[in-house]
Structures are given as C-alpha cells and as structure tokens.
Amino acid sequence: MTRADAVAAVRNPLAFIAARWTPTPRTVQRAALAALVMSVLIVVTGGAVRLTGSGLGCPTWPKCTDDSLTATSEMGLHGAIEFGNRMLTYVLCAAVSWAIIAARAEKPHRRGLTRLGWAQFWIVMSNAVLGGIVVLVGLNPYTVAAHFVATSALIAVATVMWQRTREGDAAPRPLVGKAVQQLVWVLVGASVLLILVGTVVTGAGPHAGDSSEVERMPLDWENVTKLHAVLAWIVVTLTFALWFVLKAVDAPKGPLNRTRDLFLILLAQGVIGYVQYFTDLPEILVGLHMFGSAVTWIAVLRVALALRERPYDEIGLPSPAAGQTVGTRA
After folding, report:
1. Whole-angstrom Cα distance, residue 302 to residue 304?
2. Disulfide: which of 55, 219, 295, 312 matches 210 by Cβ 3.0-4.6 Å?
3. How many other CB atoms sit within 10 Å of the CB of residue 62?
4. Cα separations (Å) of 265 from 163, 220, 222?
5. 165-178: string of b/e by CB count within 10 Å (b at 16+)?
C-alpha cells in the first residue's frame, strides 16, 4: 500500500474499500440478514437479563462498577449476564457495520441501501445510551419500555434493508389494489399498538428485571394483559381477513405467502401467550414470547413489503433470471 492509499483509507475508508472490492449480491443480502438476526438476538439476550433478575448486575454505566470496566467474579452470575449482554452490543455493531460496508461496496452503488445501514447504526448507538440510562435510573419501567421500542425500530429498518437487497431501485409497482394496501396499513398500525401495549404489560408485570425493589408502572396488570390479548385477536382477525381478500382478488403468491406465514406465527405466539398467562409467567415462556414478538413484527413488515415489486433491470442490477430472487414473488 502506498502512502497515498493510506491517506485515502484514513480520509474515507468506505470509499477506499468500495474502490477495491465488489461484493456479490448474495454477499450483500447475507450481510443485511446478519444485521437483522443480530437485532433479534439482542432482544432475546435483553429478555434473559430481565428474566434472570440481572438488570442491575452491572450497577452503573458505562463501566460495570465504579471501579471496574468489566464484571468481576464477586458479582456472580447476574454480573456476567448483564455484562455479556452489553458485550453483545459490539457484535451487533459489527454486523451492522458489515452491512454498511457491503452496501457501500456494491456495484452500482445504491445510496438507499447505505442509508438504511447507517440508520441502523445510529439507532444502535442511541439505544446503547438509552440502555445506560435504564441502568442509571434503576430500571425505571418507562425507560425499559422505550429501550424495547427502539429495538423494534431497529428490527424494522433491518427488515426493510434485507428486503431491499433482494430487489431493484426502480419505482415500486403495486401488486394489489388501494383498498388492500389500506387494510395492510391498518394491520401494521394495530401491530404497533400491540407492541406498545406489550411493553406496558411488561412494565406493570412481576418480572422487574432485578431482585431489588424496582419501580413498576402503576397499572392493573390483569386489565392491561386483557387489553393486550384483545389487540392480539384484532391483529389475528385482520391477518385472516387480509388472506381472504388476497385470495378473492387472485393476488400474486408473494403477498399470499407472507400473509400465511404471519397468520401461523401469530397462532404460535398466541398459544405461548395464553400458556404463560395461565402458568404464572414462567421465565422460559416469557422469553419465548419476547422472541415471538420480534418475529411477529418482522412478519408484519414482510407482508407490507410484499405488496409491491421493484424490478432489477431498470438500474442495471442482475435480473432474477441471473440468479436473484425477488422477495415479493418468492
């Protein structure tokens, strides 16, 4: 490497890499998928922190203790779990960074993909700070809820980027009529409301995240849980109605398959929800329900994204016939 190359790499490392490496479309897809998988995994490990009562295993932030950056043996299992979750944030950052690099290096350069990658990066950074605030305020349930909502936003952006890696940049062409599109947006809105009420259920429920006295939301947990169940049934009903309408209008397989997938995921999530409710919230089932929440959100977004197609050939990318798969037709 020459001195000029070194200077160029320092000034603009992404441009330097892009000038010397062209990833295959499949590599870009896998990088985006890795970022999405990590965004779901961080939900699972965050749930493990809460469900094992390790939320204050590291009692301060950004250090683990006032005197140590890392967890110590004296802090036991709780300290190891909380510190491990913090360290996983760096793995998430690495996955998002890989997605940004791959998107920037793809030829031709697609600015939209790179922007989606950077959006994930800044959400991760802001959520890391929010996670520190959660610790500093002693697991205040409102900050915990905000922390989960921010992660849901990260999952949304990661899902969109993953989808965009498998389609072109031409103007989107709708595959269904306006009435069907409006029904899907109602479904998305109901799903957002379901997630928000779910954070309230957690904030008012018994799993406070630490064995010490932790503030809870001053709400009747039973009533909030019933509201959450009603919203879940509304989402299920909307999904079934959407599937019926798509069949009636002879919609393409993409939207139909995504709606079917969502319906099955919702049924599984509902079974877990009811079982955990009637068995006094065992930790393993609550953890599965949190994982199911992330998967359900991805499935809802995939339904919305399946309502249109964006061809490859208008931007010079390889066509589906050359080995690519258009997500809306899969």
Report:
1. 5
2. 55
3. 12
4. 19, 28, 24
5. bbbbbeeeeebbee
